[in-house]
Every structure is written in C-alpha cells, then in structure tokens.
Amino acid sequence: MDKYCVSIVDADAHVIEPNHLWARYLDPGWRARAPRAGAAPGFRELTVDGQPIFQGIPEELWSRGAARNLRQHPEAAMAGFDAASSARALRGMGIERAHLYPTVGLWMFAIEGMDPAFAAALVRAYNDWLREFCASDPALFRPVGALSRHGPGDMVAELRRIAAWGWTAVTLRPNRLAGRTLGDPAYEPFWIECERLDVAVAIHEGTHGRLDTAGADRFGSRFARHACSHPLEQMMAMLALIEAGVLERHPRLRVAFLEAGAGWVPYWLARLDGEYRQLGWEVADRVRSKPSDYVRRQCYVACDPGEPGLEDVIDLLGEDRLLFGSDFPHVDHDPDVAGAVARLSARLPAGAAARKILRDNPDRFYRTHS
Predict the structure, then answer these.
(1) Residue 158 in contact with residue 121, Cβ under 8 Å?
(2) Distance in angstroms (rounded) separating the CA atoms of residues 363 and 263
(3) Is 185 exposed, middle or buried (0-12, 13-18, 19+ CB in 10 A)?
(4) Is 50 exceeded by the pLDDT of residue 3?
(5) Residue 4: predicted pLDDT
(6) Domain total in the chain
(7) Is residue 345 situated within a structural domain?
(8) 299 — phi, psi (to 5°)?
C-alpha cells in the first residue's frame, strides 16, 4: 500500500453473479421458476419466466466489454470474477475494503410487473449467496444487501434479516417502479426501520433495465441511454426523498447517490432551493428546510476524481459528503485507481480531503472499519 497516499475504501464495487446462483440458492418452492441461462457465456442470455432480464444492449457492447475485461483483469475475467480472483484484482488496484453491489440483480430485481413474492425470493437467494461470497475474504469484501421494491412489506422483512447478520447498508434502484417513486407512502415502514436499525441506503441506477428509466423512451443507443439514466434518475431520486418529506421525517437516515459523478449536485440543489423559495408553501407540511440543508445533513455522493467542478461540490457539501467508487469490474470501470488517487490528491489541499473521500467518509457512511 505504500505507493498510495492512503488506504482506499471502495464505496461502489460490483460482483458478477454466477448463473448457478439462482437454482442453488432459491427457496425450494421457487426453483422451478429459477432464472435460466442460454448457450452464450455469462449472463448474456439469462431469462426470468422466459423473458430477458434487460433490454436494448447493443450486440457490439458485449464483445467490446468482454475484450476490455480480458485486458484489464485477465485472471478474474477467465475465472468469471469469482471471489478469489476478484479479491486479487481489487487488492492489485490498491483497494483495502470493497463494498459490493449486484450486477445481474440491478436488472433482475427491478423488472416491471414482477410477482412481488417471486422478486422477494430472488433477493433472498442473492443475499444468501453474497453472504458466502463475502465470507471468503471478510477483511476485503463488505456486503451491501439487495432489496425488492415490488413488495414494500418484503423490503422490511429482508432488511431485518440481513441487519441481523451485521450488514450495514442496502441498495435500491432510483426509478419509479410499480407506479411508486422512492417517496411513496408505501415505503414509510421501510424508512422507519432503516433509521431504527441504523442501516444506510445507497441509490444505484442500472442502464437497460426493464422498467421506467430516464432516456429509454427517447433513445436506443447505449451512448445516449447511459448518459441519461444515471444522473437524471439520481436527480429525481434525491428530489423524491426531499419532496415527499422522507429526509425531514428521518433525520438520522443516511443516503448515498452512486455512479453518476457529483457535478450535477450544485446545479440541482441551486435549482431545488430556488423552487423552494418560490413554491415552498406547496410542500410546507412535509418539507420544512431548504432542499440543500437535507443533503448537507444526511446525504453522500460518489464523485469522479477527474470530473470538473469537484471543488465547487466540496464548497457546497463539505469534504465529509463525498465517496469514491471504482465500479469494478463493469465495462466503464477504470482499473488505474492509483492514477485516480493521484489526480484527487493533486486537486485537494494537504491531502486531508482526499483521505476523507477515499477512506473516512465511506467508513462513516457504511458504519464499518478495518
């Protein structure tokens, strides 16, 4: 670790779920409906109830993504990003601890119209598998639990189950699902329980899902869909939590917005504060402070060390609200973590802010430590 300025806590890394997970870990009563893989390698032809788990992925993206993974992480790619090879790859990048998010699950658990009971079973299977994956290297791997928003009651039950294991964070998609935004009253018992159990909530988007996603109704290319989905869905998710009064009612709730950069935050908060000055009377029963006050108090945002305007984000939110995530091992992941650290350290004074972003802030958000 001596070549890095600080030890690095990766706030947003990913697993690649093996296809055998679903039949092996699903509750016996659901195994007849287990997701099925086709002849293509990996999850390219994975289906649920006979339907693909994603939509609109260009054919060339598969081949380019596979070639890039082979160049960047040849051992892990050949091993299917199993626990052992992923651990070696992450440590090789200088990562001391990595908080793990789904890949396949980002699509599978958010298919519009899915039977809530079946979705809950899929989530349980994933979390059971992730528990074993992380147990193989608990010093490095830190689990982030998945939940299904199809059944709000199921969310609470699964939250309690994984919190009993000692898990300190869960992840949700930001999109509208089953006609509900994150601010829908149906989720209020979930937010209450997150605050009671001191479990953080990380909002993570995924392009090409089979649900309502910003940009998907207008564009067909990966270029356009990916550009729209992550920042625009995060902006609306933040708004949903503010406008519905979730952050007002739950001041100890910790929420992070991941994988969209942080440059959108100053514009969006200025916009929302301006709307609040003009129209705050309309939401006065549930929004009693400026939107930016809530975000500064209890929200975190993952930043890109090279993105423009990062200094302005720090001026607005403070050094204590930014996180760093590698996005390992997705197609847009950059394995040059050392370079990212160097760029970040060069931009920020005296290294103190860089240490907070790379280590202290994720430890505080996830309530974890070495």
Answers:
(1) no
(2) 23
(3) exposed
(4) no
(5) 44
(6) 1
(7) yes
(8) -115, 155
- Predicted TM-score (pTM) of this structure: 0.95
In a domain, 2, yes or no: no
φ and ψ at residue 142, rounded to 5 degrees: -125, 120
CATH of the domain at 117: 3.20.20.140
317 assigned to some structural domain? yes
| Comparison of pLDDT for 65 and 97, the residue scoring more | 97
User: Residues 344, 324: contact at Cβ < 8 Å?
Assistant: yes
The amino acid present at 78, given as its one-letter code, is: M
Q: In whole angstroms, what is the distance from residue 173 CA to residue 210 CA?
A: 12
Helix ranges restricted to H, the chain: 21-25, 59-72, 74-78, 83-92, 104-108, 116-135, 152-163, 188-197, 222-243, 246-249, 264-279, 291-298, 310-317, 337-347, 352-355, 361-366
Judge whether 3 lies within some domain.
no
Question: Which of 320, 341, 340, 310 shows the shortest CA–CA distance to 5?
Answer: 341
pLDDT confidence of residue 2 = 41
What is the pLDDT, as a whole number, of residue 1? 38
Structural domain boundaries, residue 19: 8-366
Spatial CB neighbours of 200, under 8 Å, sequence gap ≥ 6: 168, 169, 170, 194, 254, 255, 256, 365, 366, 367
Average pLDDT over residues 83-102: 96
Helix (H, G, I), strand (E, B) or coil at 209: strand
Q: What is the pLDDT of residues 179-231, one digit of tens each?
A: 999 999 999 999 999 999 999 999 999 999 999 999 999 999 999 999 999 99
Identity at 70, one-letter amino acid code: L
